[in-house]
Each structure stands twice: as C-alpha cells, then as structure tokens.
C-alpha cells in the first residue's frame, strides 16, 4: 500500500510540476524524448531489416550448402586472382556427387539466366529470371504451390517443355485466367505451364520466386550451355535432418576434392557457401548500426538526464517546507527519498512515452508511404520504457537523497 501511495503522490507532484511550469518541464523532457526516439527508431529499423533479411536467408535452409566458384564473403585481402581461374561447378560434378553423397537429402544442379521476356498471346512480362534445375529441386528448396504441381520424373528426365511460373509472372501473363495447361514462349521455345508458385512477396535478398520461371535442366540443355559461367551454374546440397550439418559439410568437401582430384595439401578449387556466413555478417553489420544509435541517442539522453536532475533540485527547493512538515509528522527518510525518485521516474517516463509515440507515428507514415513495412516490436517498446526508468532513477537519486537528509525544523522555517 505504501508503494502505491508513493506512486500516486509522485504522479500528482510530477503532473503539478508539468502543469505549473509547462515550458521549463517540456524543454527538460525534450532531451529524453529525442534520445528515446533516436535509439528506438534505429533499433526498430534495424530489427525490421534484420528479420526481413533473415527470413530471406532462412529460405536457403539452415542445413543447405551451395557448391559455387566464388565465396559469398570477401575479406580485405581477398585473392581474387586465385578464384577467377577456378572451374565452375559442372553437370558432371553433380552426377558424381549424386552417386557418392550418403548424408544428403537431395543434390540439385541449377543454372539461371536473368532479364528475359516471356510471352503469352498479346501479353508479355519483362525482367524475368529463368531457372533451370534437375529433378531434386523440390528437395533442396522449400516450394509452395498456388496452383498445379511439380515436374514428374518423366518430364524432368525426358526434356519435356514444361515450366512452373512465379506468382507475378502468372498475374502478368494470365491475370485471373487459369494458366495450367496453357503454352507460353520462353527463350524462344513454347512450353506448357504445369504449376504456379505461391506468392511470397518482396525479398531483401532477391530470393523470391514471384518473378521466376522454373524449367527442367534436361530441357534447358537444348537451349543454352548450362555449364557456362554466364548462366551461374551451382550445385545445391541439403543434408538429412538427422545428420549434423558439420558432418554433411565435411563429407561434401571430401567428395568434391575427390571428384576434382585434388592432392592432399592442395587448395580447394571450389567454395562451399552456407547461410551462417550471411547471418554472421548481418550480426556484425547491424551491431555496428545499433552502437551508432546508442551513441547518438545517448548524448540526447545525457542532456535530458541533466535537465531532469535540474527540475528535481528545483522541486526540492520549492517543496522544502512541505518536506519539513512531512518529516515532523513522522515521515521516514526513505519515504521522502522514494517520493522524489518516483517523481523523477514519472517525468522521464513521460518523455520516453513521447519518444515511443513519435516512433509509432513514424512507422505509420513509412508503412503508408511505401511497400516496406516497419514494425515497432514489443521488446523495443520495453527497452524504451526501461531506459526511461533507468535515467529517471539516476537523475533523481541525488536530489532525492538531499531532500531526505533535510532537517525538519530548518525545512519548515525555510
């Protein structure tokens, strides 16, 4: 009951200070408001981008490895002259891996070509990526269908001219018309639509299937050289669920070295890329941005903290005789101390809530202005409130302590 009484009185005193000295209190709270706004705005933007990018990375699969010519992560002393002479992953490498890999759920060979135009009657869609893959593509990627189906074994092995459309491609070519069974023109050839991928929306890493078309690799071999570097050949390997990822990676590395006939001690002439490489880089990048937000917002909060401390010293001076009366009626030192500490916390909370409200308004403006959706997460709201409370305690503790040590007789006479 004492705590609730203290909180109630503190709210009343803080409101009186705000009501009687509006300009002074508002200017003092401005530093807290700006500081919380900057910190939480930065954290909100970073968390939103991190989650969007991480969801894109997760599409690749946590137990998936990509055999490619170039590594995804480059260091400052990157020896590009070594990598440029590496051979690209080939269809022959894929066939050998498919026979040898024991810990793989699926091994898939892929090639792609971008910025293509596809046509259906008088409709056309530009800027489309054409992906060609072996039959195991559905085992190495998570595929969801809006309509139709995946390739059959016969279609995948016999170079049947079939394709699966991304949602945006389907909408651009067919609109509300059912595309299944229709023929479209892809890379100068007529192919039959057998499926449509479920719409995924925009992707930060360009991993969305919405603007892609998937065709069997056996069909693509009759159109372009799938082993050529210009078509970005790669081998995708997904490990079995009950096998440790490190074990799958070790087996894949050993098998690739055996296929490429590399001697012991000789450097790898291929790269094994994995999602953890991207996740680690994202953590480093976003940590640096968060530190910058703390530094910029910290200066504003520091200024605001001094402003709150100044208000509390003025409040102690103005209520000195009231403090003396309270102490003469039996109020203990801790009661006086907690009263002013709570008042300081309330004032900081007002400033922090104003900052959070500004962040919320900012998210509404950004979300209504474009397709990029910013989310104010609950943990960031609690962080803003927690920082406000901490600053309130730090700013109010010394004025509150000085108030609690006042002599009641001298305080009443002041």
Q: What structural keywords apply?
A:
transmembrane, ABC transporter permease, 414 residues, membrane, Macrolide_Exporter_MacB, MacB_PCD
Explain briefly what this protein structure is.
InterPro entries: ABC3_permease_C, MacB_PCD, Macrolide_Exporter_MacB. The protein has 414 residues and is an alpha+beta fold.
* Overall pLDDT level: 85
- Spans where pLDDT lies below 50 across 5 or more residues: none
Please count the beta strands (DSSP E, at least 2 residues each): 10
Proportion of residues in β-strands: 15-25%
Report, as a whole number of angstroms, the end-to-end distance. Answer: 31 Å
Helix content: 55-70%
Main β sheet profile: 10 strands, mixed
Number of domains: 2
Q: Rg, please?
A: 32 Å
SSE arrangement, N to C: HHEHHEEHEHEHEEEHEHEHHHHH
Oligomer: single chain
> How many H/I helices?
14
Structural class: alpha+beta
Outline type: elongated
Family: Belongs to the ABC-4 integral membrane protein family.
Pfam family, one: MacB_PCD
Subcellular location: Cell membrane
Membrane topology: Multi-pass membrane protein
């Amino acid at each position: 009951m004492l705590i609730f009484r203290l909180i109630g009185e503190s709210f009343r005193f803080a409101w009186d200070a705000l009501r009687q000295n509006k300009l002074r209190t508002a200017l003092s709270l401005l530093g807290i408001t700006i500081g919380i706004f900057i910190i939480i705005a930065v954290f909100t933007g970073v968390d939103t981008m991190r989650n969007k990018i991480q969801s894109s990375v997760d599409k690749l699969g946590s137990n998936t490895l990509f055999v490619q010519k170039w590594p995804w992560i480059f260091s400052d002393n990157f020896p590009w002259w070594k990598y440029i002479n590496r051979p690209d992953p080939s269809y022959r490498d894929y066939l050998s891996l498919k026979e040898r890999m024991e810990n793989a759920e699926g091994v898939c060979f892929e090639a792609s070509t971008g910025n293509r135009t596809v046509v259906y009657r008088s409709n056309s869609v530009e800027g489309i990526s054409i992906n060609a893959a072996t039959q195991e593509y559905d085992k190495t990627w998570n595929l969801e269908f809006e309509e139709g189906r995946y390739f059959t074994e016969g279609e995948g092995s016999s170079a049947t001219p079939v394709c699966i459309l991304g949602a945006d491609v389907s909408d651009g070519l067919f609109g509300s018309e059912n595309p299944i069974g229709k023929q479209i023109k892809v890379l100068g050839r007529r192919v039959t639509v057998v499926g449509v991928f479920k719409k995924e929306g925009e992707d930060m890493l360009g991993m969305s299937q919405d603007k892609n078309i998937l065709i069997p690799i056996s069909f693509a071999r009759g159109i372009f050289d799938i082993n050529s570097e210009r078509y970005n050949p790669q081998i995708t390997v997904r490990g079995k669920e009950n096998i440790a990822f490190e074990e799958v990676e070790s087996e894949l590395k050993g098998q690739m070295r055996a296929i490429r006939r590399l001697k012991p001690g000789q450097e790898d002439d291929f790269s094994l890329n994995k999602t953890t490489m991207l996740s680690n880089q994202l953590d480093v990048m976003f940590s640096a941005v968060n530190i910058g937000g703390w530094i910029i917002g910290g200066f504003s909060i520091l200024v605001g903290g001094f402003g709150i401390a100044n208000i509390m010293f003025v409040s102690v001076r103005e209520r000195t005789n009231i403090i003396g009366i309270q102490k003469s009626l039996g109020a203990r030192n801790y009661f006086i101390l907690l009263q002013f500490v709570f008042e300081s916390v309330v004032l900081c909370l007002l400033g922090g809530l104003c900052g959070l409200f500004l962040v919320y308004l900012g998210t509404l403006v950004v979300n209504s202005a474009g397709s990029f959706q910013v989310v104010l997460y609950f943990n960031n709201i609690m962080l803003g409130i927690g920082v406000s409370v901490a600053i309130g305690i730090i700013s109010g503790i010394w004025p509150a302590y000085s108030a609690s040590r006042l002599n009641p007789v001298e305080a009443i006479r002041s």
